Amino acid sequence: MTDRAERESPLAYPVETRGLNFFDSDRNLRRLLRRRAPGLLKRHAKRLSDFGAWAGGPLDEQAVYSDRYAPPRLEAFGPRDERLGRVILNPDYQACHQEAYRRGAIGLAFAERPTPHVLSFVMGSLLSHSDIAIHCPVTMTGAVAYVLSRLAPAKLRRDYLPGLVRMDGGTQTGGTWATELHGGSDVGATTTRAGADGAAWRLNGLKWFTSNAGAGLALATARPRGAPPGGKGLGCYLVPDVLPDGTPNALWVRRLKDKLGTRALATGEVELDGAWALEVAGPPHGLKVMMEALEYSRIHNAVAACGAHRRAFLEAACWASHRRAFGSSIARYPMVRDTLLDLAMAQEAGAALAFEAAFSFDAALKDEGQRPWLRTVTALAKYRTAEAAIEAARRALELVGGNGYTEDWPTARLYRDTMVLSVWEGPANIQALELLRVVLGKGMGGALFLTRLQDIEDALPAALAEEAGVLRAARGDCAQALNHLRGRERDGPRHARRLMDLMADALSAALLLDEAAADLKAGDRRKLLIARRYLATHFGGRAPISAKRDPAQSAFERVIGYASIEA
Predict the structure, then answer these.
(1) In this structure, are 161 and 181 located in the same domain?
(2) Same-domain status, 223 and 148
(3) What is the 3-state secondary structure (H, E, C) of 459-475?
(4) Do 161 and 180 have their domain in common?
(5) 273 within 8 A of 317, measured Cβ to Cβ
(6) For residue 25, is it within any domain?
(7) Residue 132 lies inside a defined structural domain of this protein
(8) The whole model's pTM is what?
(9) 200 and 128 in one domain?
């Protein structure tokens, strides 16, 4: 069932997005949760509404201030020339960072009666409507907490997990330190050394790109003396910024990065100079543990992209609804309408893909057999949503025009910040290689993918027979590609990006049609218009110019306003 307001009237867009409740106004997300997690939505609707109001108000105000006027700075040395490496953050940023934890963005998933992680992923998406520079450290704090809760020795878990999941305004935040100057995404090339020191370890090395620099607890990869080269020789270690006796650990931030976007986020180079650390997992399991943390972060990356994408759509929709040019509201012009419809279509496709990964994460925690599907959909979602968010930010900036290009408008910062989504936790090529491993290897990810498509196709009603045919053809193309690469593995690296696009298109289409079928049962064909537009865009080839009416254009106000359209 849909809300009465959603059935009756399209969503009205205000003059500006500041002050908008990003959860209450996201009818698509609420419908998705109502269908897939009705109990969760019922229990936490008020919490999510309050979170959405905070994200659209105080968090957004802070984001502008921190980005433009008060980015982090480094206090490298003290008055007596002692080495400090201390990161200084403005109070508004610190307060909003802690407020996210106080509202449960991480802690609820690790409570005595834990909520599903999908609630954290929803909150992450709301954070990224306003500030990816806050969502990023929240993500890493969650990743460290996740690893400690499931993979760390019991004593280490007891000693350090509570500080990461507290919800009283004093959360100890986390970081994941894997990237080094010479290696980049090749974590197996780590040169940071680990030497035993009684029950602890001492780490020496340089972590080249560490976000949330100055974090209280970090996971770091390092190679113990005598361990073999490559990933199998790595251990994973927990590095606190303060030792158990209260003295600072032997590490320091030697430089902050001057970045294109997420300027409010402290990203730096951390030098480990005999830093005290505790082993989470030694070789050959250390890299696998770090990859568990990165997998969690990749899902947050996907939902962050959905949040940023929706903010881009909202900026475009609010502007178009109130801007007049050439004697009319620009929202009446067909090309503007096409832009808004395309933004909405791609955002809803991305949300379907990202939250498929989010729900799969919780499913895999209960059933290890779901892990190949989790890895498959995470790689697809991380890749596709990041690319779509960047394109959405660009198109929103273009639609707003000259104002949108200035830093006085949210679109400029949004465009800069979305750029991090394609490189954070592995760029497209890394996701493509991960996809190859899971769909062509022993994990049977390819078979699970084809089965998921067929299950959706088989469940579509007779009214969607034509759409089912398009999906069937897409599934056939995916099957043919997978069979070819199984027989010619050497072709895999050359075609991995093409395979990823093919599979992302097919799964996005299937998920949209699955949603459309559910809405049709309730008498609403709005999602079907979105799904058909997606099919035409991604599977219809170059459509000729014709007099044929566009159904989505004809129902523009209700489609863009997320109002039900009678079937």
Answers:
(1) no
(2) no
(3) HCCHHHHHHHHHHHHHH
(4) no
(5) no
(6) yes
(7) yes
(8) 0.96
(9) no
- Per the structure, the count of domains in the chain is 3
For residues 212 and 136, membership in a common domain is answered with: no
DSSP per residue, 261-297: S-TTS-EEEEEEEEEEEEEEE-TTSHHHHHHHHHHHH
Q: What is the CATH number of the domain that holds 178?
A: 2.40.110.20
**Do 399 and 319 meet the contact criterion of CB atoms below 8 Å apart?**
yes
- Burial of 135 from C-beta contacts in 10 A (0-12 / 13-18 / 19+): buried
Asked, for residue 19, whether it belongs to a domain, the answer is yes
b/e burial code for range 526-539 (CB count within 10 A of at least 16 → b): bbbbbbbbbbeebe
Considering only CA atoms, which of 492, 318, 504, 491 is closest in space to residue 396? Answer: 318
Question: 21: domain range?
Answer: 4-165
Do 154 and 8 share a domain, yes or no? yes
Nearest to 46 by CA among 35, 58, 36, 54: 54
If asked whether residues 151 and 178 sit together in one domain, one would say no
Q: Is the peptide bond before 284 cis (omega within 30 degrees of 0)?
A: yes
Neighbour-count burial of 4, counting CB atoms closer than 10 A to its CB (0-12 exposed, 13-18 middle, 19+ buried): exposed
Residue-level length of the chain: 567
pLDDT tens, residue order, the chain (567 aa): 346 666 678 999 999 999 999 999 999 999 999 999 999 999 999 999 999 999 999 999 999 999 999 999 999 898 998 888 899 999 999 999 999 999 999 999 999 999 999 999 999 999 999 999 999 999 999 999 999 999 999 999 999 999 999 999 999 999 999 989 876 678 878 899 999 999 999 999 999 999 999 999 999 999 999 999 999 999 999 999 999 999 999 999 999 999 999 999 999 999 999 999 999 999 999 999 999 999 999 999 999 999 999 999 999 999 999 999 999 999 999 999 999 999 999 999 999 999 999 999 999 999 999 999 999 999 999 999 999 999 999 999 999 999 999 999 999 999 999 999 999 889 999 999 999 999 997 768 999 999 999 999 999 999 999 999 999 999 999 999 999 999 898 999 999 999 999 999 999 999 999 999 999 999 999 999 999 999 999 998 655 666 677 889 999 999 999 999 998
Q: 35 with 105, same domain?
A: yes
Report d(CA 233, CA 286) in Å as an integer.
8
d(CA 155, CA 175): 20
